[in-house]
Amino acid sequence: MAAVSAVDRLRRVAGTRVRRLRDSGLPVLQCALAAGLAYLVARDLFGHPVPFFAPIACVLVLGVGVTNRLRRSVELAVGVSLGVAVGDLIVALIGPGWWQISVVVGLALLAALLFDVGALLLNQAAVSAVLVATLQPPGTTAAFSRWIDTLVGAAIGLAMAATLPSHPLTRARRGLTELLEELEAVLAGTADALDAGDGDAAAAVLERARATQKRVDTLVDAVDAGFEITAIAPLRRRHRGELARLRTAIRPVDLALRNARVLARRGHASVLDGEEPDPDLVLVMRRLAEAVAVLREELTTGESTDGARSDLLDTAALVPEQGGGYSAEVVLAQLRSMLVDLLGATGMDRDDAVAAVARMRPGAPEG
């Protein structure tokens, strides 16, 4: 079992690396072409013989742009430009040297702080100022040419990000797909482990469930990045409605995954304690995994979520009254909570979802 688990982890890691290479193909090409263009413009248009700050600024802006976050790209552009400007000004006045570096870094950081920015801009401003102060040849003056080169590179980088953005839905849909696939696997895996009384299998599912939070954070970042792309690319603005639907689904899916972690932990405990869960409990877990698969398909293709909502309500009607043991009772409670969460992911109001699941409970009054 341990060997199988190791193979599964290796496959997941390999799949992640392949997807990363595939997703980064266009951004890497953008970055490479933009860096060369920035150098060409600064050298031939502005007449700077060695404009190395132009491609550096461009790479810094678009290097973060691989994650498609406009805010961070702009922060880097401002940071490097500010640092080079302060460095050029101070070195032109007092020359290069060890104490001049201290002065340049201090002033660059103070100037950046005036803009009330994050650590990314602050760090970049300081690094850029250090480069200027240390690369200034003794007895020569660059007279702000490096600052102009930096502006050229940053501008070309931001223009490239705006005119050739990635599709705003691609990473968001893929992130949600991966999350819901993990939720399916946890539900189905816990059901299989309970059915077989397999403690090793239950432990492997629990480990998998605990690794899902990072995927939630990645999905949030992808959706936010998608909105930023639609803000700077007019041709992508039609996708804002779909992004809004995905954003609405993130919170309930996150809650469902949190409940799934508790479910997996108590499922593992149930097996170790030798409990005999109600067979309907295992059945409901499998049916819920199937409903999650339908939800995944509908959410990530832009379809109506009516099919998933119907499946979830049908599953709620099958939830048994008792679990069949202390840990199994906790599993049962988590299943009810997950049904509410996932109904919320279909767009149902939470209060309506709670009421709908409550009506399905055995012994609940009709109407």
TrEMBL record:
It comes from the Bacteria. Its main location: membrane. The chain crosses the membrane at residues 21-42, 48-67, 74-95, 101-122. It is found in: Membrane. InterPro entries: Memb_transporter_dom. It holds the Pfam family FUSC_2. Residues 38-159 form the Integral membrane bound transporter domain. This is Aromatic acid exporter family protein. Keywords: Membrane, Transmembrane, Transmembrane helix. It is a multi-pass membrane protein.
